Amino acid sequence: MPKVFTVKASDLVLKVSENIDPTVVDISKYEAFLDALCGPREFQKDAIRTVLRYLLGGRYKNLRDLAEENYNNNPALRELYPTFADFEKHLQLPDKLACTIDLATGTGKSYVLYGIARIMLAEGAVDRVLLLTPSTTIEKGLIEKFKTLSGDADLLRLISEDAKIRNPRIINATQTIKEGDICIENIHAVYEYVKSSVEDSLTGRGERTLVLCDEVHHAYNPPGRDQAIKKWKEFLLNPKYNFRYIVGDTGTAYIGNDYFTDVVYRYSLREAIEERTIKTIRYVAEDSSGGECEKFQKIYDNHLENKMRYRKVKPITIIVTKNISSCKRLTEKWINFIAEQEGISKEDAEKKVLIVTSSPEHKENVLKLDRVDDKDDPTEWITSVSMLTEGWDVKNVFQIVPHEERAFNSKLLIAQVLGRGLRIPLEYKGEQPVVTVFNHDNWAKNIKHLVEEVMEIEKRLHTYPIIKEKDYNFELYQIKYKKEEKEVEVPQTEPYELLKKGYITYSTQIKSVEKETIYERVITGIREEKATYITYKMYPIDVVAQEFGID
Fold it and tell me: 482-506 pLDDT, tens per residue?
């Protein structure tokens, strides 16, 4: 039998030893608290327990210790990195007790962060928590959620009376960060020292501060023009704070196409789909769209189908472009298309399409994202660039359209784009809706490859010896060809008479035609065909004649 080597992201997760001295830390005493916080979501509890064993167990001084232990015990790591020195070069924060939790988008990362923060404060390992986010949108959502959880009387009751800090205050960095506080702030405000209390509150107190980094892939990936994001990692390493405990979370644990090297817990897209925690996904495998007009009609047809299938909510379609200028052009085209398709005014069509980019002219639209799920909100279509804001908890996305290949050409981008449509609306809890990715079929092979890797259907190398036998030996025969000339009499044809009548008769153009698209489900690989009637725009003869200057 052939020997199969697989390289999966789960093989690269660093295992934290369960052999922890209970006299050093007894995590089991928080089981009732975790049950109340996480409910039936066992993966959340496992993630919290794993991180606490790592931070509090006393077995590891820093990430380097954990990485070296795993390198010595994990053949997959040694397969990828010839020496530990090679592996160590890829560690982001080797001298800190740092790690990352990889939880698929839509699976409740905020509950895990809250659980870790609350228990670290209760244990007295730290007396302050700083939770950094990449945007004000995420900051706002986390502050609301954390305040709700801290106001939960049942959660408070399940924290022991002798805890060092039982119920933390939830603030942002406009206030001084005091002992017993969880401060939630976006990374941009950290550098606006006039508005932020971070420097004054935490200088020299880093060893007693837990730093949580939401959507931590921003700190480790090329940040483009965003200078604050570019400084995120520098802030974590700044010696004037000397932070010791740093925990990041993300649903996209990739630097480009490479998986993070400091992940201690992973709950993958594949697991989340199989356990029906999030929507399942289908994408275009084969398509015969002849141009933009046909593509627009198929996207629109999918949207109408979603409105019929998911009538309890208002389904939304996201169209993703590569940059702001491309997004603006597409938005204008799409508004005109909607107006013509539905027979409405351009002004009414504009109400249905929301453009979201980092451009100042679209700043107000970002605030509207919080309301697009509401049935009385007219938004049905969102156009955006490839880095659509994380922390956006809209659950009604049922179709995602990467308009250009660049918006969908890496594991990081695919995970980010898919993440925008994975949450299940409350109205469909217990069911598993489908989010459709309408990509160009020319990219299907590449997308299939990347999606399979993101979904943990990873790179596979098959190696096995071939025993050479005589059957493998054969002779080659050369075929010899002989040329021979031969005369052929060609019959006389009638003269060319196409224009004899003085005009040309054209066949009538069809007004509509049925076109098929083949979609493929992730994990199962099941294919399904969908037919869409494509209509072509017809023009009266006098309009055509006028256009071409024909009398």
Answer: 788 888 877 766 666 666 666 666 6
**CA-CA distances (angstroms) from residue 457 to 8, 58, 235?**
7, 36, 36
How far is 447 from 457, CA to CA, in rounded Å?
13
**The domain containing residue 185 runs over which residues?**
27-59+92-267
Q: How far is CA 377 from the centre of its chain?
A: 25
Shared domain for 165 and 206, answered yes or no, is yes
The pTM for the full model equals: 0.78
Give just the sign of the alpha carbon dihedral 83, 85, 91, 97: positive
* Encoded amino acid at 444, one letter: A
Q: Are residues 155 and 130 in the same domain?
A: yes
Do 411 and 443 sit in the same domain of this protein? Answer: yes
Show which of 238, 267, 296 is a domain's final residue.
267
Q: How many CA atoms lie within 13 A of 85 on its CB side?
A: 0
Question: Which pLDDT belongs to residue 193?
Answer: 53
CA–CA gap between residue 534 and residue 512 (Å, rounded) = 5
CATH number reported for the structural domain that contains residue 389 in this entry: 3.40.50.300
Contact 278, 107 (CB under 8 A): yes
* Residue type present at position 468: K
The per-residue pLDDT for 459 is: 45
From first CA to last CA, the distance across the chain in angstroms is 77
Residue type, 5: F
Query: How confident is the prediction for the chain on average, in pLDDT?
Result: 85
Distances from the Cα of 328 to the Cαs of 316, 334, 354, 370, 482, in angstroms? 19, 10, 11, 21, 65
Those residues of the chain that have pLDDT short of 50 are 1, 194, 458-462
Residue 333 lies in a domain: yes
CB 48 within 8 A of CB 115: yes
Reading the block at residue 396, the tokens are 């009604």
Give the other-Cβ count within 10 Å of 68's Cβ.
15
Instruction: Tell me: do 312 and 427 sit in the same domain.
Output: yes
Q: Read out DSSP for 22-41?
A: TTT--GGGGHHHHHHHHTT-
Query: What pLDDT, on a 0 to 100 scale, did the predictor assign at position 545?
Result: 67
Strand 512-521 to 527-535 pairing? antiparallel
Residue 518 CB: number of other CB atoms within 10 A? 15
Beta bridge partners of 245: 97, 210
pLDDT at residue 461, rounded to an integer:
45
C-beta separation of 155 from 149 below 8 A: yes
What DSSP state is assigned to residue 472?
A: G
Of all residues in the chain, what percent are helix, strand and coil, respectively (each to 5)? 40, 20, 40
At residue 186, φ and ψ (nearest 5 deg) are -80, 150
Residues 392 and 286 in one domain: yes
What pLDDT score does 348 carry?
Answer: 95
